[in-house]
Amino acid sequence: PAGPTRDSAAAAASATTATTPSPAPTSRATFAALVPAPTAWRPASGMFVLSAQTSLVADGAALDAAALLRGYVRERTGARLQIRSAAPTADTSPTSIVFTRDGADAALGEEGYELRVGGDRIEVFARGRAGFLWAVQSLRQLLPADRPLAVGIRSGTLRDIPRFQWRGTMLDVARHFFPPRQVRRVIDLAARYKLNRFHLHLTDDQGWRIQIRRYPQLTDTGAATEVGGGTGGFYTQQQFVALVEYAAARGVTLIPEIEMPGHSQAAVASLPWLSCDDVAPPVPTEIGLFESSLCPTKESTFEFVDVVIGEIAALTPGAYIHIGGDESFATDPAQYPVFVERVLDIVRRHGKVPIGWEEIGRAAVGSDTIVQHWGTDAGAATAAAADDAMIVLSPASKVYLDMKHDETSPLGWTWAGVIDSETASQWDPAAVLPDVDRERIAGIEAPLWTELLGRPAQLDLMLLPRLPGIAELAWSSRPPPWDDLRVRLALQSRRWTEDGYAFTSDSAVFGD
User: Fold this and answer.
1) Which residues partner with 171 through β-bridges?
2) DSSP per position, 253-285
3) pLDDT tens digits, residue range 25-50?
4) Which of 94, 250, 105, 233 lies closest to 173 in space, CA to CA?
């Protein structure tokens, strides 16, 4: 396409209303309401009709995407589309969706894609598996919330390339435990809006949530409770692998986090020899910061870290392991950087890229480390970037999803401010750390801490409608103005309802 053109989002709303019965399309969709907004798109005359007779043509890197689209179409329309591996010229179906690498522009990279929608064929061009998967998420948003007999998709061309390589969200399952089915719901929501990183905060003072075979005490003791005194829980290694695979099938890399040396009271309560005084504290069930630390001067501590990192590294093909590192108030300040540097080396020896909260920038982190800026130690994050580390932006005042939507919200904190959807999505990533070169910014991640959140519906209320807006900021190279995004977020709410997600009636999106 020569350049971006957009119908108004309001026009997109009217274009999705039912019209005539089958075989004519009973639902019509355009690209105007997509979130994130695509890089460029141009409508054309005509319409592609998706029906039960439509075939999917795919092989190789596109097969996973075709299978995912088939599932979404069946869920929305009841149609059972067939996947064929035949070359497009051999296709005799009345309409087809063809996934192909042939002719894909090299500039698309691994995650970009193009859609060309004609009267009898949609062509999906991508150079890598991720690009095909993100194209499917765009097509998914064109499927209606009801179950029409046929779906009309307006003809046109779309080109879409992400702004940042790192687009993520985080879920804290340590403070409150959420079973796998609830975690899958969050992963699916992330994938829907083309977020490619899902950071799972597995351990903290109030809970240890991942099975470590060498140390069963970690879950016998550390997983038995949660904030508020509930029964807690943990993921077996088999369950964890299933979550990794579920995410990967949708183009999302799951990143496990094991907090250290601070935020470690559940670990120390389970294995008292991890502390410097060999005393076992209780696993707390209240909210707060606790004076906990793995002992940085014992070799047994690093043997423990090596075992834990080794078992987790073996469970995930993903490139990353997060080591925490924040708010280690009980760790000897002189020993903290020594501890961090040794742990970074352990992660590397197990073949993974280490990640840590910005405080690890007080150590010599190196160029093969990712540092996550969250807001209290910008100097450490800036120092890490000067040491050639990449930076992920999670400024608490913009993307901490445990903050209230507004002053009247019953859920959430206000210590980082009140964050409505406009605040969460309308900020300049380049201005957050002004002394860091833009080339060092890997992307954006929105954390959801759960000290105050114990039910799945509460997760939904904090994620929606803010997370899709943050996803647009991370994906779109030229994000449209707020008035445009606001309308598109409101349009998305019907899909959230149909899919069983609760959402907050954010006045910035829906009005007073």
Assistant:
1) 200, 448
2) EEEEE---SSS-HHHHHH-GGGSSS---PPPP-
3) 555 667 889 999 999 999 999 999 99
4) 233
Q: Which residues pair with 441 in a beta bridge?
A: 391
For the beta carbon of residue 3, count every other beta carbon within 10 angstroms.
8
Note if the bond before 284 is cis, omega within 30 degrees.
no
Three-point CA angle 182, 205, 191, nearest 5°: 30
Alpha helix ranges (H) inside 154-264:
180-192, 217-222, 237-248
Contacts of 499 (CB under 8 A, 6+ apart): none
- Domains of the chain and any CATH numbers: 9-160 (3.30.379.10), 166-479+498-510 (3.20.20.80)
With beta carbons less than 8 A apart as the criterion, state whether 453 and 177 touch. no
First to last CA, the chain: 39
How far is the C-alpha of 58 from the C-alpha of 458, rounded, in Å?
Answer: 39
Yes or no: say if 241 and 200 are a contact pair by the CB < 8 Å rule: no
Closest CA to 166 of 475, 439, 443: 443
Can you give the pLDDT at residue 16?
A: 34
Q: Give the closest residue to 102 by CA, choosing from 81, 122, 88.
A: 88
| Residue 454 backbone zone (phi > 0: left; psi -120 to 50: alpha; other: beta) | alpha
Other beta carbons less than 10 A from residue 407's beta carbon: 7
Q: What are phi and psi of 197, to 5 degrees?
A: -130, 130
Contact, 450 vs 207, CB < 8 A?
no
Provide the pLDDT for residue 147.
Answer: 64
Rg (CA), the chain: 24
Rounded (10°) CA dihedral 373, 378, 384, 390: 40
* Catalytic residue, candidates 75, 327, 341, 498: 327
Neighbours of 114 (CB within 10 A): 24
327 part of the active site? yes
Q: Could you tell me which of 276, 252, 248, 253 has the C-alpha nearest to residue 264?
A: 276
Transcribe 196-207 into DSSP letters: -EEEEE-EETTE
- The answer to whether the beta carbons of residues 258 and 321 sit under 8 Å apart is yes
SS3 state of residue 458: helix
Q: Which pTM value belongs to this model?
A: 0.94
DSSP run (H or E) holding 167: strand 166-172
Give the count of beta carbons closer than 10 Å to the beta carbon of residue 170: 23
Those residues of the chain that have pLDDT short of 50 are 1-23, 88, 90
Alpha-carbon span 8 to 452, nearest angstrom: 39
Q: Report the pLDDT value the prediction gives residue 192, as an integer from 0 to 100.
A: 98
CA distance 92 to 266: 61
